[in-house]
Amino acid sequence: MTEDKTAFLEIFWDSPILRVLDFLVVNEEFDYSMTDIAKFSGVGYATLKLFWQRLEDEGIVTNTRTVGKAKMYKINANNPVMKKFRDFYWETTKYHIRQKMEKEEVVVEQ
After folding, report:
1. Which of 21, 54, 56, 62 is least surrounded by Cβ atoms within 10 Å, i.e. has the fewest?
2. Kind and range of the H or E run holding 12
3. Does position 108 have pLDDT exceeding 80, yes or no?
4. Looking at residues 16-42, what average pLDDT do you find?
5. pLDDT value, residue 10
6. Cα torsion for 33, 59, 47, 4, to the nearest 10°?
7. What CA–CA distances, in Å, run from 28 to 41, 66, 99, 100?
8. Is 42:4 a contact under the CB 8 Å cutoff?
9. In a 10 Å sphere around its CB, with 0-12 CB exposed, 13-18 middle and 19+ buried, how is residue 92 labelled?
10. pLDDT in tens, 43-85
């Protein structure tokens, strides 16, 4: 796994929307402005704006509060699709890590 990619992104490639979802799932306890989401997920702000409205319209993200002029967002944990996505995300991550550990054990044992 490369240093800047999670196990999920290693498996399912690296696209702006997956980077954003990856960041939001891993950091689901906190809310972030769109500027911070773009910065911390490694997606350009202009690119984020291209698909952000769709994430809101589909209920994938939810506005939690406003701080000054900045709207804060997080994953919509009440959305049934996002609940399944989160489960899928973490199962995929666990599986990928187990696979890597098994490969390392085989190499060490030989």
Report:
1. 54
2. helix 7-12
3. no
4. 96
5. 85
6. 70
7. 13, 17, 25, 25
8. yes
9. middle
10. 999 999 999 999 999 999 999 999 999 999 999 999 999 999 9
Query: Whose CA is closest to 11, among 107, 86, 106, 100?
Result: 100
Which CATH topology does 7-109 take?
Arc Repressor Mutant, subunit A (1.10.10)
In angstroms, the CA 82 to CA 12 distance is: 17
The tokens for 24 are 């939001």
For 22, the token pair is 């990856």
Distance between CA 29 and CA 46 in Å, rounded? 25
The encoded tokens of residue 94 equal 């666990």
Which residue is listed with tokens 């950091």? 27
